[in-house]
Write a structure and sequence with these properties.
The complex is a heterodimer. Chain A is α+β, with helices and mostly antiparallel strands. Chain A is built from 18 helices and 30 strands. In chain A, the strands form 7 sheets. In chain A, strands 3, 6, 7, 8, 9, 10, 11, 12, 13, 14, 15, 16 and 17 form a 13-stranded antiparallel β-sheet that branches. A 4-stranded antiparallel β-sheet of chain A has the order 1-2-4-5, with no helix packed on it. Classes of the chains: A alpha+beta, B alpha+beta. Chain B: This is SCP-2 sterol transfer family protein.
Chain lengths: ~675, ~120
């Protein structure tokens, strides 16, 4: 996975991961490269001057789509007394462009041989991720007089990298070179352009005419400035919350992704570098987190997920009618059906969450037209919940993959193989049902009832949904409550027995509203109690469970996004202090990552490490981690759309000082919210 | 005997309306190339209302494929999005129209759907 000393820039799903010199030298353990459409287009991009590698003095991440490297010849092992400076300035935006500048600081003229080694293995992202490289097609290289063409062909599947330069270069099979004479204090520069092509028969590019933003640097800059200007402003007394907020808004801009089928509109992709694509679950949850700040992402997400909703049974893709997709990919393994992502539907939460997002979006935006536009999709999603997801016939959403080869075993957000275990550490059989998904189903029915009554003109359907929701809530509280623990079971096994492990999943139940009022207090106390709460946040799995491991991916780490929904749920049930405890723990953690929360960090107790320990292979920035501070701000300020107005009911911890959020968009136009820290938290010292 | 592709288009024409395309309008031309010969199918969609002809007219979206692959798409033996990513099927013009029409293709014949642990009467 990407190491912390790598530099990443991106535009949509074109991105570069490189060393701090700007070089790319991919190995299985250092997956650097230029990637686009889930394929690596450059696996080698190494600059030398007179045969010597260069040494990094510094680099700047200027914006998410551009970076700049200051280099000198020679390695850092000795005192650097260079007479040459090399500056590499690069940007992605459709293609990848690098401006190379060389300055001679010597009193004497110099003759330089400047060379770029360039190659590509055209690895599929899945092959890079899993370190498998076994290409079935043919690689080719064509050195022409004015360009270097690197290509890969497998049947009609063709991907090409075309490299050209503004200063004439000599192209050969392994790269290109320049011979340059520089007088004292003279400067030389060249613009290198690297284009990526997904060529179909007849030479048409798959992506023709489709771009997330303008492809030019200036257009990208303009787009980013506009995005920032449109977002509400957050000011905070101590500056930390506002700095984290600003980081999040910029990262959110970077994570916008335009699927091939959306004609340039954007939705949030899941994360850099491995997940720059459409994910049902991640995109929906991110939209929910950022609704008060960037509502337009919800509209495009709902539209595209609705347009790609399942229509048939396809066991390879785990597709059913009405099901919302899990993941879409564009690479070779998807094309040749070695992976099922064309698209893959193996998730059980995206479908109810689709309905939840539509209702929540309308409450903020007043966009009734979209609720009417997506009525058929909502009804199909609700049918999927009742008809196709209930594998056991007892009124719950279950999962069991039909694609036993490349499908996902766990189709909930904790999707690693060992995330669902009994208290003794053994794994239940299939089908499985996890608790948070039943909460989402309940919420989907309650929200769909509102939409049916108010917008679809179908009060009969609304009554039916409300009845079903009430029955589900009653059933759930009977079957899932772990009486001797005072919480809800993580899952049910195929025999209907409880998987009675204590996990963070119970926090999502508060958010969904499926928790009986008289049980909420017990659930809340677990969430901020010593087994789940580390001082920074709520662990995915409670300390004391057999599989608990503070750096276990879904078995003990702390996921910021998980915590944001837990805090929202606590607030919903009136536990403002507990919500603020979690919110301030996570926002404190964010300051250790310069405002950019990772996917997950270690579940170690806060007193033990004093700083949050980043999970080693975590993606960053990741969309739902980026959305986390925004949802936490919403939660602490108690921002809720209420009868067409924005209600504000702030409950901030004392240490947070004053926070103001200006220009919150919605059906009310734009309004401001102000808050001052008054809550005296003691749990943080627990 | 009529081939699967002809059956598919004749069925669309006979149906006249497809709720899955209720929000879709536009024209698609399917060019099925076999050697020097090309068979054209023209699908006109007007908010779900369908009309099929075999004219070679200008369209918002032109899909190119060999007839055998297309026959496999309309019977569910092949998947259109994978075929598009492979370059075996080509699209020029509005890609969204293809992604909407593709949803009318059936799933693989051997796909059984959810594995239910119980028998249920489906409504």
């Amino acid at each position: 996975m990407a190491q912390s000393n790598t530099v990443r820039i991106l535009d949509g799903n074109t991105f570069v991961v490189c060393e701090d010199t700007g070089d790319i030298e991919a190995t299985p353990s250092e997956p650097t490269g230029l990637f686009s459409l889930d394929i690596r287009f450059l696996s080698k991009w190494v600059l030398t001057v007179n045969g010597e590698r260069l040494n990094a003095l510094s680099y700047d991440d200027l914006q998410y789509y551009e970076s700049r490297f200051f280099l000198v010849p020679g390695m850092a092992t000795h005192y650097v007394d260079a007479k040459l400076s090399i500056i590499r300035e690069r940007a992605v935006g459709g293609s990848f462009r690098e401006t190379l500048t060389i300055l001679n600081h010597d009193e004497k003229p110099v003759d330089l041989e400047i060379r770029m080694e360039a190659a590509s293995d055209f690895a599929d992202l899945f092959q890079v991720k899993d370190e498998i490289l076994n290409k079935k097609g043919e690689l080719y290289t064509e050195a022409e007089s004015d360009r270097l063409r690197l290509g890969y062909r497998r049947g009609n599947f063709r991907r090409e990298t075309v490299i050209s330069s503004s200063e004439p270069a000599r192209y050969d099979q392994r790269g290109f070179a320049y011979s340059v004479h520089l007088e004292p204090n003279q400067q030389w520069d060249t613009d290198i352009d690297v284009q990526t092509f997904a060529v179909g028969p007849g030479g048409r590019d798959l992506r023709m005419g489709l771009r997330a933003h303008g492809t030019e640097r200036l257009a990208l800059q303009h787009d980013l400035e506009e995005w920032i200007a449109k977002a509400p402003k957050v000011n905070s007394e101590h500056g930390r919350v506002s700095a984290t907020y600003r980081r999040s808004i910029v990262d959110l801009a970077a994570l916008r992704f335009s699927p091939l089928s959306l004609g340039g509109q954007t939705l949030p992709a899941a994360g850099l570098p491995w997940f720059m694509t459409m994910f049902g679950r991640d995109s929906i949850l991110t939209c929910l987190q950022v609704l008060p700040f960037a509502p337009e992402l919800s509209k495009t997400t709902l539209r595209i997920l609705g347009a790609l909703q399942g229509t048939r049974f396809d066991d390879f893709r785990d597709e059913d009618p009405g099901r919302i997709l899990h993941e879409m990919r564009y690479g070779e393994t998807a094309a040749f059906e070695e992976q099922p992502h064309s698209p893959y539907y193996g998730s059980v939460d995206a479908t109810p969450l689709f309905v939840v997002l539509l209702d929540e979006y309308e409450k903020w935006s007043g966009d009734v037209a979209l609720v009417k536009e997506l009525e058929a999709e909502c009804r199909a999603a609700l049918r999927w919940i009742d008809d196709y997801a209930d594998l056991v016939g007892n009124g719950y959403i279950w999962y069991e993959r039909r694609n036993t080869d490349t499908g996902l075993e766990n189709q909930c957000w904790k999707d690693s193989w060992d995330s669902i275990s009994y208290r003794d550490g053994t794994l239940p059989g299939f089908p499985r049902a996890t608790c948070e998904v039943q909460g989402y189903a309940y919420d989907a029915k309650v929200r769909a009832a509102r939409m049916a009554r108010e917008f679809w003109g179908d009060p009969g359907f609304a009554d039916q949904l409300e009845r079903e929701a009430a029955e589900l809530k009653e059933r759930f509280n009977r079957d899932w409550w772990v009486a001797d623990g005072g919480y809800y079971a993580l899952a049910l096994d195929p025999q209907g027995r409880q998987v009675s492990t204590l996990s963070s999943n119970i926090g999502h139940l508060l958010w969904s509203g499926i928790v009986d009022d008289d049980r909420a207090e017990q659930v809340a106390q677990h969430l901020v109690g010593p087994r789940l709460f580390s001082g920074w946040g709520v662990r995915t799995l409670a300390e004391g469970e057999v599989r608990y491991n503070p750096i276990g991916y879904h078995n003990g780490t702390i996921w910021p996004f998980d915590n944001s929904f837990i805090a929202w749920g606590l607030r919903r049930y009136g536990f403002a202090e507990e919500a603020a405890t979690i919110a301030s723990g996570i926002l404190d953690a964010a300051t250790y990552f310069d405002g950019r929360l990772p996917e997950a960090f270690g579940g170690y107790h806060r007193d033990l490490t004093k700083f949050p320990v980043e999970y080693p292979t975590a993606c960053s920035p990741q969309a739902w981690s980026t959305g986390t501070p925004l949802l936490l701000i919403r939660t602490m300020l108690g921002l809720e759309p209420h009868e067409g107005h924005l209600a504000v009911d702030p409950r901030l911890p004392v240490g947070m000082g004053r926070i103001e959020v200006l220009d919150i968009p919605g059906r009310w136009g734009r309004v401001d919210a102000f808050a001052r820290g008054r809550l005296d938290l003691h749990n943080l010292d627990a | 005997m009529v081939d699967a592709t002809t059956r598919f288009f004749e069925d669309l024409d006979r149906r006249g309306y497809e709720p899955l395309l209720a929000k879709t309008s536009g024209t698609l031309r399917f060019d099925l190339h076999e050697g020097a010969q090309t068979t054209h199918w023209m699908l006109q969609i007007d908010r779900g209302r369908l009309e099929v002809t075999q004219e070679d007219r200008e369209a918002d979206t032109v899909v190119g494929s060999d007839p055998r692959l297309f026959g496999d798409l309309v019977t569910g033996d092949e998947n259109a999005i994978a075929a598009l990513l492979r370059g075996d099927m080509t699209v020029s013009g509005d890609l969204r129209l293809v992604l909407q029409v593709e949803r009318l293709f059936p799933g693989p014949a051997d796909s059984r759907g959810p594995h239910r642990a119980f028998q249920r009467e489906m409504s």
